């Protein structure tokens, strides 16, 4: 498997995790239940399923810690974030903290891409700024 294929599989895992976490935010189903539902109903042949499950379970299990890490970098109250922005930021902070094998710039770029695809029109610039602050705080 080439690096590019692996990268795409991880990107697809982030997209599915975003959708799963959005669903979790709405109905608070168990992360494992959501993951199993996704895997059984969708084609995961080109998705890094392990990374998908890690992101989904990791964000759900660590939400409070992730929010504590995230809040100082926000310029508005957490409640004012769009659900999609909040979920993208949680994925980003989780990866920055728990996936050291992924360079922080890649994490930020991937989250910006998710935000461009699924978030509000200018949300990606906000996502970029917030995650950059979090990453800078973690790496200095």
Largest sheet: none
Distance between the termini: 34 Å
Oligomer: single chain
Give the averaged pLDDT, no decimals.
Answer: 93
Strand content: under 5%
Strand/helix succession: HHHHHHH
State the helicity in percent bands.
over 70%
Point out poorly predicted stretches.
none
- Judged by helices, strands and strand pairing, the structural class is mainly alpha
Number of strand elements: 0
Radius of gyration: 14 Å
Supply the number of helical segments.
Answer: 7
Q: Shape, please?
A: globular
Topology:
Elements: H1 3-27, H2 31-41, H3 49-61, H4 63-70, H5 83-98, H6 104-118, H7 123-139
Brief overview, please?
This protein is mainly α. It is built from 7 helices and no strands.
Walkthrough of the structure:
The protein is built from seven helices and no strands. It has helices spanning 3-27, 31-41, 49-61, 63-70, 83-98, 104-118, 123-139. The longest helix has 25 residues, at 3-27. The protein is globular and about 40 Å long.
Question: Which descriptors would you attach to this protein?
Answer:
140 residues; mainly alpha; 7 helices; 75% helix; 0% strand
């Amino acid at each position: 498997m080439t690096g590019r294929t692996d990268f795409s599989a991880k990107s697809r895992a982030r997209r599915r995790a975003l959708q799963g976490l959005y669903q979790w935010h709405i109905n608070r189903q168990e992360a494992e239940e959501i993951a199993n539902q996704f895997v059984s109903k969708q084609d995961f042949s080109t998705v890094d399923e392990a990374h998908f499950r890690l992101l989904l379970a990791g964000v759900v299990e660590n939400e409070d810690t992730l929010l504590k890490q995230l809040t100082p970098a926000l310029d508005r109250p957490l409640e004012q974030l769009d659900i999609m922005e909040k979920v993208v930021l949680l994925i980003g902070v989780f990866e920055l903290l728990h996936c050291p094998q992924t360079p922080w710039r890649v994490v930020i770029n991937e989250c910006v891409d998710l935000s461009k695809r699924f978030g509000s029109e200018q949300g990606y610039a906000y996502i970029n700024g917030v995650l950059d602050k979090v990453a800078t705080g973690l790496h200095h």
